[in-house]
Amino acid sequence: MVKSSVILFSVLALIIAGSYFENRYVNSKIEEFKQELAVVIENAKNEDDNSEKLEDILKWWKKSKHILHAFIPHNDIRDVDGLIVQSLTLMQKGEYTFALTQLEKLNNLIMGIPENFYFNFGNIF
Amino acid sequence: MLLVFVRTMITFVIMFAVIRLMGKRQIGEMQPYEFVITLLIAELASIPMSDLSIPLLYGIVAVLAIFVFHQLFTILEKKSVFFGRIISSKPSIIIDSEGINFKEMRGLNITVNELQENLRNAGYSNFDEIEYALIETNGKFSILEKQKSENEKQPQKTPLPVCVIEEGKFKDWELNKIQLEKSLIEKILKEDGIKNLSDVEVATIDNNGKLYYQQKNQSYKVINFDFEGGKKW
């Protein structure tokens, strides 16, 4: 009985600690992403070439996504990959308006990722 | 992770409630919560394993959640009689010294045919051979045989009872099969004081000329009679 209880509470503690770490990790990475992306979006609005900055974001994302794969549905990660590459290509071609549309989409997508972890009725059901 | 845990918990509780409401015969050799675990765990493990778009962690957390519920239910079942009753129910006595307990049978969604089938599986053919029949919490039948006195006659041949009346209605299909007239049964029952056939919950008849019947809210009765010209089926 004692052994069972110890195992039970250990697993529960593991799940709670894991949830806490998951939330913290995903939120911090997405927050970092949002801040970097905000600069690129602002520059795109002013029709400034920001492809170097976007390339840096792409490199950063490629490194970060390895761990994020453990927490985020892989389809979302694939969508983020696609939108960064599309925005970068459009920006390199000087099509800032189209690039801006893709960047806004990307921003919207990454803002929605932490929301999927919120403990609310919609997410539970 | 916590969301997956909560979602698993909700699914588990709902499935457990449904299995309990469906009655004991839905499960075999397992407690209701163990049956739910068996149903859930295979799906939980296989979906993230085969669908590459779902992180494996979701499956692992769900399986761990199931483990937590299993441990929790096991502890509660051992520690508290009240929870034990809720989790695993209690054995149901469906045949006692008074005969068949129809109220219990209806609660468990068991028909007379199914009861007969289980008695035959256990090696008994007549209801009156049984002192007690119970359905255990895992859905299995337990049968306690009636003590026979030394003077008691052995039947001439192995009886094969057929259910001829169930819930006050003749089972024409069974009667045709054994080529028996309704009038014979009606006559026997009338002679035994039965005015209204709809009061008879169950009646079985065997090839040795034994009629077992039970009226609503009364003890069972056994009548021995002679078939004209012998009867075999």
Which properties best describe this structure?
heterodimer, A: 125 residues, mainly alpha, Four Helix Bundle (Hemerythrin (Met), subunit A), 0% strand, B: 233 residues, alpha+beta, five-stranded antiparallel sheet, four-stranded antiparallel sheet, 8 helices, 18% strand
Task: Describe the secondary structure blueprint for this structure.
The complex is a heterodimer of chains A (125) and B (233).
Chain A lengths: L1 H44 L5 H18 L5 H19 L3 H20 L5 H4 L1
Helix pairs in contact in A: 1-2, 1-4, 2-3, 3-4
Chain B lengths: L1 H21 L9 H19 L5 H24 L1 H8 L3 E5 L2 E2 L1 H6 L4 H10 L8 E6 L5 E5 L16 E5 L2 E2 L1 H7 L3 H10 L8 E6 L4 E6 L4 E5 L9
Antiparallel strand pairs in B: 1-2, 1-3, 3-4, 5-6, 5-7, 7-8, 8-9
Helix pairs in contact in B: 1-2, 1-3, 2-3, 3-4
How would you describe what is shown here?
The complex is a heterodimer of chains A (125) and B (233). Chain A is mainly α. Chain A has one domain (2-124): Four Helix Bundle (Hemerythrin (Met), subunit A). Helix content of chain A is 84%, strand content 0%. Chain A has helices at residues 2-45, 51-68, 74-92, 96-115, 121-124. The two termini of chain A are 34 Å apart. Chain B has a five-stranded antiparallel β-sheet, with helices on both faces. Chain B is built from eight helices and nine strands. Chain B is an alpha+beta fold and 233 residues long. The mean pLDDT of chain B is 85. Chain B is 45% helix and 18% strand. The interface between A and B is medium-sized, with 24 and 23 residues.
